[in-house]
Amino acid sequence: MPRKTATMPDPVALLAGLKIPTIDTAAMETSHRKNVEALVAANRQIMEGAQSMILRQAELARESVEALTRTVEAVITADTPEARVEAQQVAVTEATEAALADMQAVVELAAGTTGATFDILQRRIAESVDETRQAVQPAV
């Protein structure tokens, strides 16, 4: 009894019926270039924010040293022990208030940098999704 052999399907015939979407490679390349540009802009924003924070912290340190100098002078030049205690109390109150205000300023700088960086990336992601949709056309 002769054996039945299975015939292999014709690969050309199989591929002929396959519908592959078309991709605009130039548009995809442009999109990726814009992605890199957005990352560079975000990194620039982060570096500028870090630089602003460092400068602000240096300014705060200078102001703290000046305040400490004024406090020491006020305590040393006070005539009575009561006046010395009062000068110290005033210095502690002012230092506490200044520290809280300084922390708030640094937090606002950091938040501003973070928000601006997030906006850059979020905007680019939205643009990239639209560009990808336009670059990939469904198969016909």
Describe it.
This protein is mainly α and 140 residues long. Helices cover 81% and strands 3% of the residues. It has helices spanning 11-16, 25-77, 81-135; strands at residues 22-23, 136-137. Strands 1-2 form a two-stranded antiparallel sheet. Helix 2 packs antiparallel against helix 3 (81-135).
| Number of distinct helices | 3
**Main β-sheet description:** 2 strands, antiparallel
Mean pLDDT across every amino acid position: 89
Which runs of at least 5 residues are low in confidence (pLDDT < 50)? none
Task: Give the distance, in angstroms, between the N- and C-terminal Cα atoms.
Answer: 47 Å
Structural shape: rod-shaped
Q: Calculate Rg over CA atoms.
A: 34 Å
Strand content of the residues, in percent? under 5%
**Sequence of strands across the biggest β-sheet:** 1-2
Q: How many beta-strand elements?
A: 2
Helix percentage: over 70%
Order of helices and strands: HEHHE
Q: Structural class per helix/strand content?
A: mainly alpha
